[in-house]
Specification:
heterodimer, A: alpha+beta, Beta-Lactamase, Helix Hairpins, 4 domains, five-stranded antiparallel beta sheet, five-stranded mixed beta sheet, 13 strands, elongated, B: mainly alpha, Methane Monooxygenase Hydroxylase, Chain G, domain 1, 9 helices, 0% strand
């Protein structure tokens, strides 16, 4: 039993006992007990009322609690109320700090709930997109930022995808938007200013396109004169140099043509899905074209005629031609090349395997860079320009496809292009339908 | 700011209907804003393909207008809204008409862009049209923001802004006339520029209308065909 309880009970018993003893003297013990009990009750009621008044007016000084149970209660109350006040103040401080740090972020951050309504947004969101931190709380974010692309992004719930929208506040600026899951069922919309990046990218693209365009006309003149001189050179000893100049001019023309194709590919969007491409037919014609250019190793083709791709036919043909002619260039004449086009699971797999010299593992990640050469010292007379794989990679990414390269030096290489299932179509022939019906 | 008072009904379903209706108006607004900015970009960059794309995309705006109109009639018939809800529905019916007209003007600008792309281009690539276009896009954006936020002050700003757009339009017309007098061979081209400027100016008028509907929706006052200055004395 705590000290204060004992004190209270002993004090109360003594007080009531004393009352009863005094009553005894006058021969009326019940009356004495009653009067003592009433006095004790009155005093406790007074304390209770005073305590209540102290709580209501918050004027604790005026409360005379004496010592005993009331002092204990009062001390405990003051202790708890001060502690909760301290906590509250600390939380408020902490919140202010969090607020300050989110406001200091250079990227806009908007917390939204399942209905796309704004829960919280920082200062950058106001500067970049005009979302007002307090007033727009509860508004749907796509009612304020009304870009059709953003609405689609919010509906898709894809946390990997990102889109660029024009800033509604700063004319000419571009914002990159991403939606990432946040907390239990909230999402966070991240806005980043990408104006400079887009401008740089555009400048680089324009430069390559303009430079190759400007180089083409002088080169046409040079190779035109070369062609006419080559027919009857003035001196016999010029025949060799002129022939070499002709072949180099042709090479430059090819480089320029491929550079221009690359820059066209870069500015083009995703390939459409309306046209159905007959891959097997393209493989046959590409192989024939490569073979007609000179002696090649044996080329085996295993293509599934029923399997088609939805996309751009010319671009797919360029992929096949580039891969096959690459393989032919790096494979000795007694080697072999295998071109396969088949269904793999639900996706379509185009692979070109050769038994050529192979590529060392450290070079594989850089193969698709422009003008990348495995062997810097090797002569460039093999007809390659150095842009083929870059073009392949660009075309594949425009068809949502993946390029993977496996190679063992001395054994051979395999280039595999995997097309996703919504780009691939399996044409059911009557025969196949019959077979599946039997099975 | 007062968006919550719209969704204050006993019937949950009614709340949701009205909220959905408002959201689809904002979606339509977003689409129209996108069309307009692409049309302006087509003129400024001389991109005839983009211009034709804008023109052929106008059907999306029209479809949305028809859908929203139908939804409004359905709510009017089944819920018989009163007071602020009724004003909201009336304002929406009017707003989508103006949005659809803005879509039509953007379609026109798209066509004009594709025609202008085939002609000589001035060295400043139609800077005045770009300024006027940006000005009008800002106005439209401000009007739709005011609609979303039910912001009377911002709507009044939009209404006032229209005078400045009209001045800019006058300046462009005058400039075009000067050019045409200097060089009669350029008349065809500058006629197209004038048409584009005219379309942009009309878009400004429609944006102003939307601003007026917002004021009607929030305060129940009709300020059309009155002097704007009156409203600044006593904003209720």
């Amino acid at each position: 039993m705590p000290e204060s309880w004992r004190k209270l009970l002993v004090g109360l018993t003594l007080f009531l006992g004393a009352g009863m003893a005094i009553g005894w003297l006058y021969d009326r013990p019940e009356t004495g007990l009653l009067i003592a009990a009433l006095i004790a009750l009155a005093w406790q009621v007074r304390q209770l009322l005073a305590f209540d008044r102290a709580l209501r007016t918050r004027n604790f000084e005026a409360f005379r609690y004496g010592d005993g149970i009331w002092e204990q209660i009062f001390a405990r109350f003051v202790f708890h109320s001060e502690r909760s006040l301290r906590h509250k103040r600390r939380y408020r401080e902490l919140l202010r700090e969090i607020r300050k740090s989110t406001d200091a972020m250079p990227d806009g951050a908007v917390v939204i709930d399942t209905n796309n309504e704004i829960v919280m947004s920082n200062r950058a969101a106001k500067q970049l997109a005009g979302l007002r931190p307090k007033k727009d709380r509860g508004q749907r974010v796509d009612n304020i930022l009304r870009d059709p692309g953003l609405t689609a992004l919010l509906q898709s719930g894809d946390s990997e995808a990102s889109i660029e929208i024009a800033s509604p506040v700063r004319v000419g600026d571009w914002l990159n938007c991403r939606v990432v899951p946040y907390g239990a069922d909230q999402k966070m919309l991240l806005l980043r200013d990408v104006t400079d990046r887009l401008r740089l990218n555009k400048m680089r693209r324009d430069f390559v396109a303009n430079a190759s365009h400007e180089l083409r006309s002088p080169l046409t003149v040079i190779s035109g004169y070369l062609d006419s001189i080559a027919e009857e050179p003035e001196f016999e000893e010029w025949r060799m140099p002129i022939a070499q100049m002709q072949s180099q001019a042709q090479r430059m023309q090819q480089i320029i043509a491929e550079l221009m194709e690359l820059s066209r590919l870069e500015s083009a969007g995703r390939a459409g899905t309306r046209d159905v491409v007959d891959v097997a037919g393209l493989i046959a014609s590409s192989v024939k074209a490569v073979q007609s250019r000179g002696t090649t190793p044996a080329i085996h083709v295993e293509a599934d005629r029923r399997l088609k791709i939805r996309g751009n036919g010319t671009q797919i043909e360029s992929v096949i031609t580039n891969l096959v002619s690459n393989a032919a260039r790096h494979t000795p004449e007694d080697g072999s090349i295998t071109v396969r086009w088949e269904a793999s699971g639900k996706s379509g797999l185009l692979s070109v395997e050769d038994t050529g010299e192979g590529i060392a593992a450290e070079h594989i990640p850089r193969l698709t860079e422009r003008f990348f050469r495995v062997d810097r010292g090797r002569s460039r007379d093999d007809g390659g320009v150095g842009l083929g794989l870059a073009i392949v990679k660009h075309i594949l990414s425009r068809h949502d496809a993946n390029l993977s390269i496996d190679s063992t030096p001395g054994v051979g290489s395999a280039f595999r292009c995997e097309f996703p299932k919504d780009r691939v179509e399996l044409e059911e022939t009557a025969e196949a339908a019959l077979k599946s019906a039997e099975g | 700011m007062e968006a919550s008072h719209l969704t204050d009904h006993i019937s949950r379903r009614y709340n949701k209907d009205i909220e959905d209706l408002r959201n689809s108006v904002m979606t339509m607004g977003g689409l129209v804003e996108d069309q307009l900015s692409r049309a302006i970009a087509a003129i400024v960059s001389g991109d005839s393909e983009l211009g034709l794309k804008v023109a052929s995309d106008d059907y999306k705006v029209n479809n949305l207008e028809v859908n929203i109109d139908e939804e409004c009639s359905r709510i009017l018939a089944t819920r018989s809204p009163a007071a602020s809800d009724l004003r909201l529905i009336v304002a929406i019916i009017k707003t989508i008409t103006d949005l659809e007209r803005i879509g039509d003007e953007a379609e026109k600008i798209g066509y004009l862009a594709s025609q202008l792309a085939a002609m000589d281009r001035p060295s400043d690539s139609y800077r005045e049209l770009k300024y006027l276009g940006n000005h009008v896009s800002q106005m439209l954006r401000a009007a739709m923001n005011a609609f979303a936020r039910l912001d009377v002050e911002a709507s009044l700003e939009v209404v006032k802004e229209d005078d400045r757009v009209d001045e800019e339009y006058d300046a462009i017309t005058r400039q075009c006339i000067t050019f045409m007098m200097e060089d009669p061979r350029s008349i065809r081209r500058f006629m197209n520029v004038t048409w584009a400027a005219r379309s942009l100016e009309r878009i400004g008028d429609h944006a102003k209308n939307i601003g007026e509907y917002v004021i009607y929706m929030v305060q129940g006052r009709d300020i059309r065909h009155t002097e704007t200055s009156d409203h600044f004395e006593s904003p209720a």
